[in-house]
Amino acid sequence: IDAHRQEEYELLLELAQIPSPSNHEHKLAAFCKAWLDQQGAEGVYIDEVLNVIYPTGCTDSNDLVVFMAHSDVVFPDTDTLPMRVENGRIHCPGVCDDTANVVAMLMAAKYIAQQNMLPSNCGVLLVVNSGEEGLGNLKGCRRIMQDYGSRIREFVTFDDKNGQGVDRAVGSM
Predict the structure, then answer these.
(1) Kindly report the CA angle at 59 between 137 and 72, in degrees rounded to 5?
(2) The pTM is what?
(3) 150: which residues sit within 8 A by CB, 6+ positions away?
(4) Residues 19, 83: contact at Cβ < 8 Å?
(5) d(CA 52, CA 55)
(6) Sorting pLDDT into bands at 50, 70 and 90, what band is 133?
(7) What is the CB neighbour count within 10 angstroms for residue 41?
(8) pLDDT at residue 80, rounded to an integer
C-alpha cells in the first residue's frame, strides 16, 4: 500500500475531475474500464446501467462475494469538476463520496489482476456501481442483485469517509 500511495493519489486527482452525476456516469465508467484493462484485469465489462464489473474466479454457478463503490456524485456538473489542492488535501465535489473509495477499489483490483489472485471457494465481483445517489435510486446495485442475487453470499459496499461499518439496510424509494 505504501509503495503505491503516490499512484493512488494521482489516480484520485484524475478521477475527481471527471463529472459523474447520477444517470450520467458514462465518462467515469469508460475511464474505469480502460484503466482496469491497462492494469491487466481480464473480463471487465460495463453493463446496461453503467456498472463497471470486474469478475474474478467467477463461474456460471459458484457463490459470489461482491465489493462495490459508487461512481456517481450528487453534483449535477457535466463539465470538468472544480478542484483545488492545498497541502496535499484535495477539495473537489464528490471526492469523499465516493471517488476516494472508487480509487481504493481500483487499486485493489489492480493488485488482484497483477498477482493473478483467484479466490478458492467463490467468485468475486469488484463493482464500480452507478446510480447510488439521489434519483439514481440504487439502479446499479439493483442490477447487480437482478443479475447475480441468488448467488451472492456476501455483499460489501464502500461509501463515504467516516470509517464506520454499517450492518443495516439503507432505504430507497
Answers:
(1) 20
(2) 0.91
(3) none
(4) no
(5) 10
(6) confident
(7) 20
(8) 80
Is-contact 127 56, C-beta < 8 A? no
Alpha-carbon distance 18 to 78, whole Å? 8
Angle ∠(38,30,81) on CA atoms, nearest 5: 115
State the Cα–Cα distance between residues 90 and 140, nearest whole angstrom.
Answer: 27
Q: What is the 3-state secondary structure (H, E, C) of the chain?
A: CHHHHHHHHHHHHHHHCCCCECCCCHHHHHHHHHHHHHCCCCCCEECCCCCEEEEECCCCCCCEEEEEEECCECCCCCCCCCCEEECCEEECCCHHHHHHHHHHHHHHHHHHHHCCCCCCCCEEEEEEECCCCHHHCCHHHHHHHHHHHHHEEEEEEECCCCCCCCCCCCCCC
Q: 170 pLDDT exceeds 70?
A: no
CB distance 75 to 94 below 8 Å:
yes
Name residue, grid cell 470486474.
54
Q: What is the pLDDT of residues 67-94, one digit of tens each?
A: 999 998 888 777 787 889 999 888 887 7
The grid cell for 75 is 453534483
CA–CA separation, 83 and 92 (whole Å): 5
